[in-house]
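User: Can you predict the 3D structure for this chain?
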Amino acid sequence: MKKYLIISITIYILISIYNVSFAQQFYGFNPDTVKAQKFDMGKMWTFENPPLDYFEQEYNFRPTGEWLEKVRKSALRFGKGCSASFVSADGLIMTNHHCVRGILPGLNEEGEDLLNTGFFAETLEDERKVPELFVDQLIVIKDVTDEVLAAMETGETDSAKITLRDKRLDELINEASEEYPELNFKKISFYHGGRFSLYGYKRYDDIRLVFVPELWVAKLGGDYDNFTYPRYGLDCAFLRAYDEDGNPVRNDYYFKWSSKGVTEDQPVFVVGNPGRTSRLNTTAQIEFARDVRYPMLTKMLKDIYAVYYDKVTADSTLDTKLVARLYSIGNALKVYKGTYKALLDPYLMARKKDFENKFKRAVQSDSELNEKYGRIWDEIAASRDEAVKYTPEIFAYTLNSFYSPKYFFIARDLVTLADELKKPDDERDEEYKEENLDETIESIFPADFDGEFQKKLLLVQTNILLDNLGDDNEIVKKMFGGRHGMEAVEYLLANSKITSKDDVMNLAKQGADAILNSDDPFIYFILNTRDELKELREKSAALQKKYELNNQLLGEALYAVYGDSIPPDATFSLRLADGVVKGYDYNGTRAPYKTTFYGLLDRYYSFDKKFPFNLPGYWKNPPAEFDLSTPLDFVCTNDIVGGNSGSPVINSDAEIVGLAFDGNIESLPNNYIYTTEANRTVAVSALGMIKAINDLYKAERLSEEILNGHIVE
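Assistant: Here is the predicted structure, written as structure tokens:
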């Protein structure tokens, strides 16, 4: 018996050693020994609960209440997706060039191209109003968690709880609006809905453009240099807020400008509105993103980027509006590729799993917490298993104007026309009534239809259908007949009856039956996916309600265990992120903490002045007073994501030392985990901005206002 026991123990030990050795051989480490790090969940602190003791211990600096109020009220939410700040008492606003890039074409006057030439308003009267743009200044914060959770407790079903939550939040917003009628209140969710606050914003909606550099200077290197460092971009823009009387806003809260710049290891703070992170997500949620969501979206973005890149480079004159579109797509592609790569990294996944295991043990070891929250990991995992069954189909069947060719929208409009024609005239929607019918039919085929471009988009959509539905899907069989790639595209177009305006008009005038019985492949797609897509979306919506509540319970559990020691995920709400200015090791060398204008010229000449490393001609002979050794960009360890674009980087005196505009390639895992080893925020230097504005662009009116903190008469 002892002999068999010894043999069994020996075999067990050998298997254990083999498993550890295999893991170490496969991964280069043993995943079971990997530990979560202190700040894996990030350092995006809320203004409700800034970690004052930690700041004092780490930086020998303890922000006062006055400091925090000044910083909070000097920072801004810029439009619907960026950050900004006041930098003078006269309403001057600083943000990134790429935050206004999409706005600039709409501000062009006759013969202008502001993306190409940049802009500077010589006088206040020349400052150009930006339609529909606004900035929000956070004035009031109210914690309403107890009121909201109490209301939810009375609901008996998932749907009822969500309805009661939303109703109570609306009531609380109305109450706050009565107390502060001058403010615009927003409901802010923290910890996936585990905590709730109301933020009262003062809105400024008369915003005027003051200064932007050229696109080529702001984003030198285009998509190649995006999310990289060393970096050489003057990615800044200055605007101004005006009051109801048309005068520059007078504001007591603004950031002064530092004349000292930064030094390595100096503490700095980023104040901005990070858009969204998913660091609290469970392993099951992360694996769903890794195995389902990111592969299909990354592939789509890669295909659509190739379409736009070909279109941009086909024209030697470089259409700046099209280039800006390309840059936006390229930015999204790099984010998705980088995040997907991070999710495939077994070391980062092991860190996430270790945190989850510790978190679960903390919940399960407490009987009260376990009773309330112990089941949520299993329920979330089950919901992701269910979502896997139909997410690819929903993605494949859903049309999107971003990447779907117009053929599908023409087909959809024709099917809608047929459905309406089946009704008596008095029951039709207005545009389909007899007196409006000719005009409606005339508008179905787009006036700006570009056949070659739509053909390339059709390849993108074809790949989406084939990749997500597979060759055995009946719709795929019918549409493509076993073909793939461009051969499938050619087959579709050869069999379509709606590829020209004449064809569309002819089919439309034949009536409803002709449309609905057509063997056109695009019409076939619309008819054979719309009911199934509706059903799949209903399933997804029902699943989402339970999923949403479990996410909220997950957040409640996290707060119950860790309190404010772990900051909540980003929700496009104001945060304070701490860090230090610091270079890092990469590619077998060292990245310096700062770059200079000399480096910008090196990129320009090293790439033979060709797109996307082209610069305006004056860079060949910059003014003698322009010091090329001035710092242009720098890096720091602060925790940022999308939405932080335009965030001020300040020192402990609440002075501007930089303007955050990007992260490096090592920052791309930030959606799920914050790492400290090489993850960096990339910022434009305050010294570089003022040097360029004053000596290169000769915008002395602006530089004097920035340095003095007010308009200089």
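Residues 2-33 form one domain. The longest strand covers residues 195-204.
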